[in-house]
Structures are given as structure tokens and as C-alpha cells.
Amino acid sequence: MKKVVKPYESSASKKEQIRTMFDNVAGRYDFLNRLLSLGVDITWRKRLIREMKAYQPNHILDMATGTADLAIMAARSLPQTRITGIDLSPNMIEYGLKKIENKDIKQRIELIVGDSEKMNIEDDHFDGAMVAFGVRNFENLTKGLMELHRVLKPGKPLMVLEFSKPTIFPVKQLFNVYFRYILPAIGKLFSKDPKAYTYLYESVQAFPEYDDFQAIMEEAGFKRCRWHALTFGICSLYIGEK
Ligand SMILES: C[S@@+](CC[C@H](N)C(=O)[O-])C[C@H]1O[C@@H](n2cnc3c(N)ncnc32)[C@H](O)[C@@H]1O
Q1: Alpha-carbon torsion 143, 29, 230, 168, what sign?
Q2: Helix axes 196-206, 14-37, angle to 10 degrees
Q3: What local confidence, expressed as pLDDT, does residue 9 receive?
Q4: Is 80 helix (H, G, I), strand (E, B) or coil?
Q5: Does any ligand 1 atom lie closer than 6 A to the CB of residue 157?
Q6: Which CATH number is 38-165+208-241 given?
Q7: Domain boundaries, the chain
Q8: 70 in ligand 1 pocket by Cβ < 6 Å?
Q9: Sign of CA dihedral 162, 203, 87, 39
Q10: 138-148: string of b/e by CB count within 10 Å (b at 16+)?
Q11: What is the mean pLDDT of residues 189-195?
Q12: Which of 104, 145, 161, 203 could form a disulfide with 220 if both were Cys (CB 3.0 to 4.6 A apart)?
């Protein structure tokens, strides 16, 4: 990580600021996610789940589950699998719970408020772990990844989706204009927290990507690490095994 990027200019820790920011945006989060990604995020999530399916997991952890989009998608695609979603923001979890109430998948999804860096879960517990657009927000990235490693059974995978910066002309230039100027402007219009979408741009700029993020996963103990660039490298899927 080049520097610690926080949403607000306050002395509160990154973790406190992140919790506040996601509590503020929770109500409009799903709507803005679909709008700003033009729905492409769904294809990225589907790709992760396809990779996860190959491991035939019984119980998956969805860390930084937010409003539980990925957890819900996983529950639908993997009908034998249980999913535990954990998130720092109580409001995001509340919206996630609303989305699953009265649905049959509710029996297989539990959603809990918690912290990626300190989980109240025993070692070697899950058959798979996934994090979609969450690791960038961790206060201590290596610590968070080490915790994810600890709660996985040996040989089981961690899969991470995170924004990356495309390198190909003209996608690189177009993406930069969209992400830096257009996306924060739309975010300001619709979101209750104008800082959130400026933070999104700044945090993606500062975040390690491709081989650099893979090296941090390896440092946290993951083996057989690899990454796949999705949609010209706008997003990357990182996979490693305990
Ligand atoms: C961009 S949202 C992604 C939500 C969801 N995974 C998705 O794909 O829509 C990032 C989420 O990470 C959560 N988060 C950030 N730091 C966290 C931490 N240390 N432990 C647990 N959740 C965290 C935030 O509260 C937020 O809900």
C-alpha cells in the first residue's frame, strides 16, 4: 500500500471512518453499484462463484459482505452450501438481512456484524472465503488476509475481487476519466455521503494490484496464488489456497 487513504479528513481511524461511510451509503448502495458499474459487476461476481464451485465448498465465508449481494448469488448457485457473511457496517448488514427475509435461501445464509481483522471463529473452519471490493477498505490489509487464512481449512481457497487499473489504451484513459470525474459526480447526486465516491477513486489509485497484491497474499500465507484480469483489467480476481 503506497499510503493510507481514508474517506474523511478526521483523526478517526480508517476502520471507524469506513464503518461510518458504509453506514451512510447503505440505503443507496445496491442502486449505485448497479448504475455505476453498468451491471458489469454481476459478471465479475459470477466468475468468482464459478471458480468457487470447483472446490465444492460446504460452508463459505463472505467477508465484507455488505448488503450480501455475493452471498445471495453464491447461495443460489451452490444449493448445498451455507454462507456466513461478515461486515463492519451494521447498516449494510441490516439491508442484507432485509434482502434475504422471506426467501428460501435465508436458511443457508447468516449475516453478522464483525471485523475482518479479528474474527470470533475457530481456526480451520471454512471451506472457502471470498471478499468482493472489501480488501481495499481493510485498515491493516496483511492482518485481514492472515485472519482469512487462519479460518480456512488447509487447501481451501480465498477469492478476492478488487478494482484494478487497466493498462490498455484507450480503456486506461476512458476508465480514468469515468472513475475520477463522472463516477464521483453521479455518486454525489444520489448518495447521502458525497465523500464516498471520491474515496473510491483515491483508494483504488493507492491500492496494490496484480502481482503486488498477489505478493501480499503470499506474505499472509496463501499458496498457489494467481490472478485474472477481468474486463480489460478494470477488476481483478485473485485466488490463493491455504
Ligand atoms: C464496497 S463494499 C462491498 C460490499 C460487498 N462485498 C459487495 O460486493 O457489494 C465494502 C464493504 O467492506 C466492509 N468492510 C470494510 N472493512 C471491513 C473490515 N475490516 N471488516 C469487515 N468488513 C469491512 C464495509 O463495511 C463495506 O460494507
Answers
A1: negative
A2: 100
A3: 81
A4: coil
A5: no
A6: 3.40.50.150
A7: 38-165+208-241
A8: yes
A9: negative
A10: bbebeebbebb
A11: 81
A12: 145
